[in-house]
Amino acid sequence: MTTEASNILGTGWGGTTPDGDRRRIAIVRLAVGLAQGIVLYLLLRATEGGSASWSQRHPDLFAPALLTALFLPAVLLSGVGKLRLWVYGVWSLIAGAALALLAWHDIARQADGDREATFPLFVFAAAALFIAHHLIVPADRERRLAASYPAYFDAAWMAGVQGVLSIGFAGAFWVLLFLGAALFKIIGLSFLSDLLDKGWFTLPLTGLAFATAVHLTDVRDGLIRGVRTVALMLLSWLLLVITVLVGGFLVALPFTGLDGLWETGSATALVLSAAAALIVLINTAYQDGRPDHRPPAVLRYGVRVASALIAPLMGLAFWGLALRIGQHGLTPDRIIATACAVIGAVYGLGYLFAAVRPGPWMKPLEPVNILAAVLSVAVILALFSPLADPARLSAAAQVARLERGAVKPQDFDFDFLRFDSGKAGLAALDRLMRSSDAKTAGLAREARVRVNREAYSIQDRNERAAAVRIHPVAGQTTPSSFTAQLSRQDSLMYACNNEAPCRLRTLDLDGDGRVEVLLAAPGSIMAFAQDAGGQWSQTGSYSAVCGTAAPKDLLNAFAEAVTVAPASLPNLVVGGRTLKAQPQIRCEEPNTR
Question: What is the reported pTM?
Fold first, then answer.
């Protein structure tokens, strides 16, 4: 190990790494891996029992325990031997407390019911922990608040390679175990197969395997450094590919227009992903910025061009977000996307400045990376804490749109408040139920007591209702109350459209003096009735079972005449319960002789 590498990666419990220190570090890592496996097994047991399980009865305790058990061991495994003992202890406590508090808040903000930690929490918590840990380790090694950029680069990319190799080692370990179990089983010995089905065996063993891999890759850091060098070299040449693709995309936009991009519904996610790919690959080419690590000239020019492409991509991301927010308001996903775009803008502007600034090649990239790393941790902590809870912010913004008249009550997504914004949404619904606007109060009351969300979103319903096409037969008209309620009729959302308009006829089917609506679609006829409150709902459908008439023939016949025929079998009343008849249909084969 070189002196420089030792300064960055060497042990914090002895300066060099003598055999005694290596043994102590190995024991700590194996103990951490074993403890993680045992805790995960206990948490797995806590999920047994369905709704009566401990995890369901105490989600505010289970989620913090799960998030901490999953991610805190990574800090303990990576930090041992690299941090001074007191820093190791304090940082581990802070990291564990932060993970637990983030998970607790994620549960606390949710409405009552089956409360579980959300998927974004796991993704962003892991990202924040990785970034924060590799800001602290180099700084502690150099005994400074801010370490040198090569120290940050070396620690972070070495940890990334170690993580990938350790996961691969654990996976290969289990492939071999399953292979061995299969070999034993074919000779009649199933003990190993039985053990592999037991959580108390597999989870601690997985923890031990991963901890072993971390230790082995840390001890042989020279080999890992070589693997990292090869990986960086290969990835850096991919920068030219993504630069050509993104550059061609941006050049083509003025000629193709942006309509196709916005129609995808995921334009912001696409451009943010492209920007993230550029950022990562630029750093694989720049590495730690030292002259002896400088890439070939073609890559240096590629880095400058790629660095200038990030800012336009961020401009597109903000444009797309502004359009969606202007049309439909804030949602948690859009708030998180906006936060990602803000961080991306820091990279974009900083990298653009580095690309055009004269002087050492791309040198301003270094402080930009450090600033963006610190900002990323701060933003993630804010998003998943009460400071900038996306559910609370989006619920408040959506209600504000409704109250200022930007969206009509019938077009407002009350289900978002009921099901997607936790306690903040329920509190907003309770307030809207007391609104002076009777329409708003009524719809809010309906949503508040709803157990399951509507099948379609408000936007989707309105779009489908606008696409419905109904042609009344000669001498008939469509009841205006039926037209007003098209968005509530799920059955005709797909059946009646420009390609196949439905034919409408009104008819008193049951002889009660009130007409029903019959809608003829290709292959079937739907029946709708209106209740005392004026609400239309589907009561049944008719389909042609026998015969070979084409759907077009059925529609033509429907336009000419429709009569009511008595049912072949009446309903039965058995023990006070009505049983509806389901006749056995027998279709006679046509006589071909």
Answer: 0.76
- Tell me phi and psi for residue 236, to 5 degrees: -60, -35
Buried b vs exposed e over 55-79: b needs ≥16 C-beta within 10 Å?
bbeebebbbbbbbbbbbbbbbbbbb
For residue 264, pLDDT over 90 is answered with no
3-state percent helix, strand, coil for the chain, nearest multiple of 5: 65, 5, 25
**Which tens digit of pLDDT belongs to each residue from 402-425?**
999 888 888 888 988 988 888 999
Please, which residues have CB within 8 angstroms of residue 504's CB and are 6 or more apart in sequence? 470, 471, 472, 473, 476, 478, 517, 518, 519, 520
Q: Does the CA dihedral 148-153-159-165 come out positive or negative?
A: negative
Helix, strand counts (H, E) of the chain: 22, 7
From the number of C-beta atoms within 10 Å of its C-beta (0-12, 13-18, 19+), residue 186 rates as exposed
Please calculate the CA angle 332-336-339 and round it to the nearest 5 degrees: 140
313: pLDDT confidence band, cut at 50, 70 and 90?
very high
One-letter amino acid at 482 equals F
Residue 18 burial (C-beta neighbours within 10 Å; 0-12, 13-18, 19+):
exposed
Per-domain boundaries in the chain: 1-219, 233-322+347-376, 390-449, 471-565
Q: Which helix (H) or strand (E) holds 525?
A: strand 524-530
